[in-house]
Every structure is written in C-alpha cells, then in structure tokens.
Amino acid sequence: MALPAAAALTLTGCAEQMFGTDGDDGPDGEGEVVVGVPAEPLDSPDRPGPSEATGSLEDGDEVLGLVRAGLVRAGLGDGVSADSPAPVAALEQGRLSIGTLGDVASGRATTVDVDDSCTTVSGAVDGVVLGCGTTVRVLDAEGEEQRRVDAPGEVTAAAVHPDGSLAVTVESDADVHWFSPDGESSGSEHITDSASALQLVGNTRDGDPQWRAALVDAAQTSVTDIDIADRSRLAALRIGQGVGTVSAGTRPDGVLVASDPRRNQALVYTLTDVIRHTQSVPTGDGAWAVLWDSDRELMWVSTTGDNTLTGYDLSTGTPVAVGEVTTAPDVRHIIDDGSGDLLLVTADGTREYIPSDDLPRKD
C-alpha cells in the first residue's frame, strides 16, 4: 500500500526539530513535548464493563508483550492470509504462549517456560526475539530456541533481520549494538538515550521485501529508522507528544502506526526510502493500543477513556472512521494474524477475541 503523503516530514539529525517545542505535532498544533517522561495509558472508567464488550472474553495472566510470530517468509514472498494466518505469541511472566490467534485467546496455545528475566518480545519474519536480562533469545514460530546472544547489558529491545543479523539495545546505553548472524559483535552506533522497543517493518519499494526496524524511545517520544543488515542509522522523527504503542502490518508495505495518548491521536509513518510522517488522526480519549491491518488497509485504535476500538481507513490521505465497537476496560495490546480477526488483551490479562464478522468494514 502506498499511503498519500498528506503531511510528509523528515529529519536527519537535528535535535532541536525532534525534541524541541515547536508545537506543530497534534490535531490543534499546540503544546510542548514532554521529554524524558514516558507516556502512560489512561485508566478506563467503570462503564462500559466487560459484559458489554464485543466478541468473547477469557481470563488470563498479565501480558508483557503480544506479537506476531511470523510474517512474509524471507526470500519466498508468500505472506500470511485468512487461509494461512500468522502464529501469535504472548509473553507473560515466566512463560511464552505461542500458537494461533484463537489458541492464544483461549489459553490453549503451546507454552514455553522462560526465565522471569524475559521482559521484552518482538516479532520476527519466522519467530520471535526475547530480551532476557543480559541475553537475547531467538525462537522459531513453534517456540523452539534457535540461538542465544550475550548482550552488553540489560536488554531493553531486540530485533532480528531475516538474514539473522540482530539489533540490541540495553539499559543506560544510547548505542544500538549490532550482531552478525553467527552471534558475533559487529560494533555499535549511538542512536537514542533510552530505547524501549524495536518493531520490524518491511517494504517492497525495490521489489523483494526489504526489512528495516523502527527503534522507539518512549521517554524521548521518538522513532528512528535503522537498517539492521547494513548496521546503520537512517533518520529519526518525533512521535507526537508522548508515544504509547506502535504497530506494523502482516504485509511488507512500509507502514508504521503509533498512538499518542497525551494528544489523543494516532500517527502514521512510512519507512520506504526514508521515514516519513504521513498522517495524524484525532481519536477519542486515551489512545493506546494500535494495530495496522495491512490486508484491509485499516488502522485500529483502542481508546481507554471510552473503552472503544475504532477502525480508520487511511487510503485516501484523509483518515475516515469506518466504525467502532465496545471493548473491555484498559486494553493494552492488539494483534491480528491476517485472517481479519483481532485479539485484544487488557491490563489484567483478560483476552478479548473479536471475529472479523463483528468488526466494521470499509464500504
């Protein structure tokens, strides 16, 4: 999908632009960036309650991260779809659940015991990457460990390129540390003070899928486009006034979406030749969990101020809300598998499974 560049913006290293107080981010163009303090989700009101939520609800343990455990298979070009959905992985304290969207929702997924130090998870082309204390673990789509890499500190984020190269960030270190496919250190580069997440983003601008990563710094409310295979920093942009969560799709279309709960908005970026901010979308109160459904070209945004999930069509350059459904309170995560169904997970671990037939659609 090629999103229209309604608000294209690039930045290649000017700190004043990225972290200054120019006040031009957000629907009304007012306000200052809160630097150094990560945004937090807004607590949901008492009503509507879980009984009014769309779809089915299942109790569960608190989830630290919810990701797809498979995308386009490297070099083959065959993606996930309704007929061949992606596996999904949920990281809980001491356990990784991995399987179909429905199995993770119902608690029937395969579980892999992990150390309590495993606190971060990112999706890969064919598996997941865990940050466990000072160790990075790479697992396949069935949860089998493929390799381990020793990091130079407590891991805050990690991502793996389809060629096996790794990017790793650690606490109290502004560098991204590069590792070769065989696990050897390949150097490091100063990028951002307090990296909090890495999201793999693919694009097919030059034909075959090319894979980059979006490095998120919640405290600095920034996103940096990095090339893991080339071990390089490309460009960086601000994410509104306080980034909440980010998401890329099941297809390598270069799209990254993000929430900004401080300004009640969602933002859209593309990572193709260079990272660009293309759209800002005003939302209800408490935008937090977001999802880019690349198969249907819809952005889903959960707002905890009103316990609502809203779908936005971004294809014309002017965001259009296509409909909304009621959710359980305090949604923290959203994931899909290419089938059209969605899984939402709340702060207390409740799983909300919403079949595609219960969701609004584009005309």
TrEMBL record:
InterPro entries referenced in this protein's UniProt entry, alphabetically: Quino_amine_DH_bsu, WD40/YVTN_repeat-like_dom_sf
Acidic residues bias: start-end ranges: 22-31
Region of interest (Disordered), residue spans: 18-60
Protein name (database record): Prolipoprotein LppL
Organism: Corynebacterium kalidii
